[in-house]
Amino acid sequence: MSNNAPFTLRYAARTDVGLRRQQNEDSVYAGPRLIAVADGMGGHSHGEVASATAIAALSALDTDPPTGDLVTALEAAITEAGRRIKDMAERDPKLTGMGTTLTAMLWDGAHFALAHIGDSRAYMLREGCLYQITRDHTLVQSLVDDGQMTAEQAAAHPRRSLLMRALGGSGSVEPDLSLREASAGDRYLICSDGLSGVVGPQALHETLTECTDLGEAAERLIELAKEGGGPDNISCVVAEVLSGA
Description:
Helix content is 33%, strand content 29%. By secondary structure, it is α+β, with helices and mostly antiparallel strands. The longest helix is centred in the first third of the chain and has 22 residues, at 70-91. The chain has helices at residues 46-63, 70-91, 139-145, 151-156, 193-196, 201-210, 214-227, and strands at 7-16, 26-30, 34-41, 99-100, 102-107, 111-117, 121-126, 129-132, 167-168, 176-181, 187-191, 234-243.
């Protein structure tokens, strides 16, 4: 597929506090060139500070698109986001330990740069098949990778949310980065674990396939997570690649 393919991106974003949390520490962004979800942690609203700071640092990519390499531009924005979060924590001891996941896609009309750190996820629906295109940076996922635990055991593990990587905090700040070629008809879902930890792949696939309206799809996904107990904040961005300007 040539780089000058006249693709456009449609998108819809939704976020909900869920049924058991007092406040929403997720932040989302959806624009013509950038979609992103950040799931903050740190408690007492500090997670919200971290996730909002990360999204704010990346949002410049939507208004001032990179002229060069997409992956390099996205990586630089994430490095800046991590620096801002660290600086804020150093200035205010109450913010010590705050951090956030971040999963983001930067679009140039023919390709996506995908960046991922933590356990928010990105999925791609292509030609009827749903693919998870990120790998969780969690302790249980590392145990699955090493053959010490099955995926089913990991999904039910009490410490399944323990992160090995996040933006901010004391851990590694190394996002997974890749460049993906777009195809007309592709649908993408970026979501926090408040959705993917409750709603299984089959229900995700059905919703993304059956809902023609992206806003309706996003709202249905939120509803499904709440029907499943809504134990965490729930955020998602649904996007679709269309041919023709």
